[in-house]
Amino acid sequence: MTTLLALLAWCLLFVLCWPLALLALLLWPVVWLISLPLRLIGISLAALFALLRAILFLPARFLGG
């Protein structure tokens, strides 16, 4: 659904201002490549917090709480 909305937004932008739409189309892979390390850091931090939560709640799980 989000892909369809993004396509419709791009088509609307293309109708209103086609140079900006083409620039956005060309720069999208560059923005994606720049944001990729930030996503990987976010995934790693989420996994680290899940591990810490599992370690902290381990005694309660053993006691049946």
Task: Report what the structure shows.
By secondary structure, this protein is an all-alpha fold. It is built from 3 helices and no strands. It has helices at about 1-15, 20-55, 60-65. The radius of gyration is 21 Å and the shape is elongated. The two termini are about 40 Å apart. The model has no long low-confidence stretch (mean pLDDT about 90).
List keywords for this structure.
single chain; 65 residues; mainly alpha; 3 helices; 92% helix; 0% strand
Summarize the structure.
The chain has 65 residues and is mainly α.
SSE topology:
Layout: H1 2-16, H2 18-56, H3 58-63
Helix pairs in contact: 1-2
Strand content of the residues, in percent?
under 5%
Structural class by sheet pairing and helices = mainly alpha
Number of helices: 3
Task: Return residue spans where pLDDT drops below 50 for at least 5 consecutive residues.
Answer: none
The helix content is over 70%
Mean pLDDT: 92
Could you say which overall geometry the principal axes of the C-alpha atoms support? elongated
Annotation, overall tally of beta strands? 0
Spatial extent as radius of gyration: 21 Å
